[in-house]
Amino acid sequence: MSAVQATVATFDPATRTGTALLDDGREVTFDSVAFDASPLRYLRLGQRITLQHDQTGKLVRITLPTLP
User: Fold this and answer.
1) Residue 66: its pLDDT value, please?
2) Under 8 Å between Cβ of 8 and 64
3) DSSP code, position 16
4) Which of the 8 DSSP states describes residue 22?
5) Which of 23, 32, 65, 67 could form an SS bridge with 16, CB 3.0 to 4.6 Å?
6) CA distances to 44, 64 from 6, in Å
């Protein structure tokens, strides 16, 4: 599994979906499946997160940089 860090750009707590900005400025959309796979309950705008991808490149989990 590969991981990259990003910054939360948008987050909708009702749908548990949102977008994050990678350090190179690209925007990544995440769905509720990736959010629900994490131990997180809420994200705030500007928060640093880690996006974990599977071998195919699909985003599968969102965590905080300080969490394994």
Assistant:
1) 83
2) no
3) T
4) E
5) 32
6) 13, 10
Report the residue count for the chain: 68
Whether domain 2-63 has CATH 1.10.287.1080: no
Q: How many CB atoms lie within 10 A of CB 47?
A: 15
Residues 6+ apart with CB under 8 A from 24: none
DSSP 14: T
Residue 32's φ and ψ, nearest 5 degrees, are: -65, -25
CA–CA distance, 24 with 39 (Å, rounded to integer): 26
User: From start to end of the chain, where are the E strands?
Assistant: 2-12, 17-22, 27-30, 48-53, 59-63
Q: Could you tell me the pTM of the whole model?
A: 0.89
Evaluate whether 8 touches 47 at the Cβ level (below 8 Å).
yes
